[in-house]
Amino acid sequence: MLSGLGILAIALLTIAGAALDMMLGETRRWHPLVGFGSVASRLERRLNPHSSDSVKQTQTPRHMTILRGTLAWMLAVLPPVLAVVLILQVLPTIAALAVHAILLYLCLGLRSLRDHTVPIAQALADGELAAARNLTSRIVSRDTDNASPADLSKAAVESLLENGNDAVFGTLFWFAIAGAPGAVLFRLANTLDAMWGYRSTRYNLFGRVAARIDDLLNWIPARLTAVSYATLGHTQLAFRCWRTQAAAWPSPNAGPVMSAGAGTLGLALGGAATYDGVSEIRPPLGSGTVATFTDIRRAWQLVLRTTLLWLAILLVWAVIFTQKG
Q1: What is the residue range of the signal peptide feature (predicted)?
Q2: Which residue among 80, 125, 217, 225 sits deepest, i.e. has the most Cβ atoms within 10 Å of its Cβ?
Q3: What pLDDT band is residue 57 in, cutting at 50, 70 and 90?
Q4: Which long-range contacts (CB under 8 A, 24 or more apart) does 65-72 make?
């Protein structure tokens, strides 16, 4: 499917899925990722000895907890991905193409990023600090009850930059590589990393495999995203921030993405943030001015322009490849 006219089909289906996402946004009810999250939560409660029973915690060897987490990942991810593969094989060609586009739409979160962050900028512009705090709390895990406008702007920009890769560009990359099964695999793996990939007592061992698989699947997309961000702004500053700052960030993939994104926007991100009442000083990201509400829209525009860049490159490459074939 990824040769000859198949490559052109993938490019057109990618554009169709992205267009559907921008036109329709998230489904209001019964979103598949929400249902997947519920199934994953039940699996974790059943298989993770650190979820509730303190007696079992002390009796379960470390390697067994890791194996339980591996089993949970396989039970959560492999059945739906294999189901997609089988369905696409038995459907007529036109129906299969439609399923590819629809599943890409369901996996993408481009419109969702806009819908969750631009209202924060508008609330801050209107001086509605309480509303901005509430909206920001829906997209980040840090405390927002006492956050200043600058804190909220920084949180929203950081979320846009990082989730641009997780919710958009990683999905587009794996769709281009393997169609709908690739997009579904990536999004489900990324969702499990978001649920289980913490270095806490509960998840450090159980979620280790989920975190490592997400790191692996995201390695190439994250660096392509960082290059794309850098290309569309202050390029030299973006690459310098990537080179000097990314390694200090805890995530091997978020580091390049967020440092390059902050640099290309000319913003100083990272630094102080409060989690569960505890203030943390995180490594610096980018260089320049402190983020304001206007920078939230700038970050959204960067994600949107990067999406358009990727779609254009994919389409041009597909047309050239098809003509050569």
Answers
A1: none
A2: 225
A3: low
A4: 65/205, 65/206, 66/205, 66/206, 66/208, 66/209, 68/206, 69/196, 69/205, 69/206, 69/207, 69/208, 69/209, 69/210, 70/209, 71/47, 72/40, 72/43, 72/44, 72/47, 72/48, 72/206
Using a pLDDT cut of 90, give the percent of the chain over it.
Answer: 84
CB atoms within 10 A of CB 64: 12
- 3-class DSSP state of 287: coil
Q: Residue 58's pLDDT is what? A: 53
Contact (CB, 8 A) for 68 and 48: yes
Cβ atoms of 69 and 209 closer than 8 Å: yes
